[in-house]
Amino acid sequence: MSKKQIEDSVRSSLEGYFKDLRGTDPDGIYDLLVKVVEKPMLEVVMAKADHNQSRAAEWLGLNRNTLRKKLLEHKLLK
Q: Which residues contact 43 (CB under 8 A, 6 or more apart)?
């Protein structure tokens, strides 16, 4: 999947989100989007990195401690 395909998927999902609101003002879209994207991203990257936090952190461009904090926040540590 290309960067453009991911962008298009996010754009389409957000359009659907606004449609589902039926004119109601949204609240906290940024935090909502980060939360719903971050967890599956971490799950997939950790699986592909064989749960090696150092490798996953490198792939994500994060400090290992930052990755560990995010894994704890999302209850993804074994």
A: 76
DSSP state of 23: T
Q: Are 36 and 22 in contact (CB under 8 A)?
A: no
pLDDT computed for residue 49 by the predictor: 98
CB 57 within 8 A of CB 69: no
Choose among 54, 43, 40: nearest CA to 6. Answer: 40
Q: What predicted TM-score, i.e. pTM, was given to this entire model?
A: 0.81
Question: Hey, what's the torsion of the CAs at 7, 9, 10, 11, to 10 degrees?
Answer: 80
State the CB neighbour count (10 A cutoff) for residue 67.
Answer: 22
Per-residue pLDDT at 1 exceeds 90: no
Taking the C-alpha atoms of residue 69 and residue 67, their distance in angstroms, rounded to an integer, is 5
